[in-house]
Amino acid sequence: MIKVIALDTSTTKTGWSIFIDGKYNDCGLIDLSDMKKTTAEDRIPIMIREIENTIIDYSPDIVIVENTVVSRNVSAQRFLTMLLGMIWYICMNKNIEYQSVRPTEWRSWVSPEKKGNKRVELKVWSMNKVKELFGFIAESDDVSDAILIGYGYVNRYRDE
């Protein structure tokens, strides 16, 4: 049995999904939006603890995370990169394979269709794609992205 956790991370909301033996199993949202008025620096330790708890709860073989792509906000890029580094460290300490994937890459694994160019269009595509593939509406676009990251990953590597 192979378990994959897929993460769409941020310092405020992190979507996660679980795939077991290539099949969707569960998803959820770590939501720190009630702390929005605090700094990202203050939220990161809490977010990473919640992500680590999710990893511990599900004991995955692989953790796949969306790589950071923030071209206009250097501070956001720095904080997201810190989060990825901490997740990598957790995985290294628990002997879990760690993978990161660019957004354009996982989206191409899911579907070759045109998805849009703007963030809003991509989020709508993600929500609609989860409804089409899994028959339900995800709690948020963070969760739908996490589901599709996992779905794309397991389908890309299904034969391996």
What can be said about this structure in brief?
The chain is α/β, with parallel strands linked by helices. The chain has helices at 40-58, 74-93, 103-110, 119-134, 141-156; strands at residues 3-8, 13-20, 23-31, 62-66, 97-101. A hairpin with a 2-residue loop joins strand 2 and strand 3.
Structural features, described:
The chain is an alpha/beta fold and 160 residues long. Helix content is 49%, strand content 21%. It has 5 helices and 5 strands. The protein has a 5-stranded mixed sheet with strand order 3-2-1-4-5. Strand 1 and strand 2 (13-20) form a beta hairpin. Helix 1 packs parallel to helix 2 (74-93), helix 3 (103-110) crosses helix 5 and helix 4 (119-134) crosses helix 5 (141-156).
Helix content: 40-55%
User: How many individual β-strands?
Assistant: 5
| Computed CA radius of gyration, to the nearest angstrom | 15 Å
Instruction: List the strand order in the largest sheet.
Output: 3-2-1-4-5
Q: What is the succession of H and E elements?
A: EEEHEHEHHH
Q: What is the mean pLDDT?
A: 91
The largest sheet is: 5 strands, mixed
Distance between the termini: 14 Å
SS summary, helix count: 5
The proportion of residues in beta strands is 15-25%
Residue stretches low in confidence (pLDDT < 50, at least 5 long) are none
**Classification by helices and strands:** alpha/beta
Shape: globular
